[in-house]
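Hi D.,

Good news: the full-assembly prediction came through. Inputs first.
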Amino acid sequence: MTVRKNQALLTAAEKKRFVDAVLELKRNGQYDTFVTTHNAFIMGDTDTGDRVGHRSPSFLPWHRRFLIQFEQALQAVDPAVALPYWDWTADRTARSSLWAPDFLGGTGRTRDGQVMDGPFARSANRWAVTVRVDGRDFLRRDLGAGGRQLPTRAEVDTVLAMSTYDTAPWNSSSEGFRNHLEGWRGVNLHNRVHVWVGGQMATGVSPNDPVFWLHHAFIDKLWADWQARHPDSTYLPAAGTPNVVDLNDTMRPWNDVTPADMLDHTKHYTFDTAA
Amino acid sequence: MSTITRRQALGVAAVAAAGIAAAAPAAARAVRTPDAAPAAAAAGPAAFDEVFEGRRIKGGPSHGGAHHGGHHGGGYAVHIDGEELHVMRNADGTWISVINHYEPLATPRAVARAAVRELKGAPLVPLTLV
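Then the structure:
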């Protein structure tokens, strides 16, 4: 059974196996297909049109399915690997072990934002950014640029306290848990973390940075935490909503999975702490 | 292809200019204040054309066929040195681009300038949708 662990608690061997599996997906070409898919949805999901992966209720089940697919690809390389999660309320500085050279490497250099250490540095020659929105082929970051701060635990708790999953108009202007977790309204959780990392993480091709998966694994865990706090609340909308994925509608690009199928994560993995 | 008179063009420009003048303060507030009036979304932003930090940035209404399908600027296109920057308007009237996707800004011009700062001289890769 897959157990997703807090990245801060991984052993050196677990970090190495995760990194090696990610590098193998990059080498065999599978990794970049995930980047391409994400960017296509980022550019296609709009507040007034069809929206599936972002700015809509299906933001959470879409990314849950996307992460399961990525984790299965990792496990096809090394069955012992699971996606770790990054609790950015606890590990909230560029000095976190997350950013050490034996794991994801650190922030970018001043001149061009280029990450210079760790397994994903361009100089290590195993991580060329090929699915990109500008001419640069090296991984970039600008951790905490301009004094930006990651969300605090107290801010997360205010969002987890929201008992309604989502509300009309089911987009970036909605009230409710989903949009506050996504970050288009209120204290801003998920979006703010993308901006804090900077570089490709701030763009539509954000999965070019492997921290994408650790960030979204924690967002996914917060959904599970929310479900545990609000057992009487569920996914909304239920049915008949134009441009929006209802509870039992299938989601692109898979077309064989619905939000209802994604509500119980324990069929696929568990967390190292009770959700 | 429609032909429009100079009078009509000026009229459109005047309406657009009035729209941005009215919309900009609301949109700017919307970045920080989620409860700001969504009325900003109703007005179209004005065209712009300037050199910012050495890059030519242009923005304005786009008409079908001049761009790749599938972008969602609501009929508004932004270019940096001639390459299209994918932009999108949020429901509250704020804007994002594919370069700064997770941080809404008040206007398409602000989005273009943010992209120029982020690019640090690098060329945009032509817009593609898979």
